[in-house]
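Kindly inspect this one:
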Amino acid sequence: MLRILLADDHAVVRKGVKQILAEAFTQVTFGEAQNAHDLMGLVGSERWDIVVLDLNMPGGNGLEALKQIKSDRPLLPVLILSMFPEDQYAVRTLRAGAAGYLNKESAPEELVLAIRKILHGGEYISSSVADELVFYARNKDDQQLHKYLSDREYQVLCLIASGKEVKEISTELSLSAKTISTYRARLLEKMNMKTNAEITHYAIQNGLV
């Protein structure tokens, strides 16, 4: 029996993914998590063949959850299924141990193909992710400024650029306002900026929001 754990805060998304995979795999059972806490509880208490993980998770972001899963269960493959474009998070998630990255706009057949390949011990990347990896490898010494940010700094940058205040960001990431302010200060220093307006302008210019 194939056991798939779906982690997404939207019930309609989980239902759609279940329907697609139930038609593709004859013997399959699903677990569902709608936040990071539930996800880690299920990962720690039950056996799974693969985790399908959204990056935008209440109670802690999906990238941090991915790192925790790979720390606790290094052999458990994780497929990222996210609304974020590949050029924003694909390289970061693959470096953190993901077995594949798919945008939620991908065709159902591609989701099935990705899971089949991962279950057979491989990794799955779309052609656009492959292009991003090639670009990253060829231009490692000439990266855009945000490529030098840590995962958490990058996340704070994107949230600031989307118009959220420090208090809102601290609530969303389950961190103190002081910690968020520290990340903000670090990213401003790394990117040689001084204001949120500069952050927002940069993010828009580089297609991050």
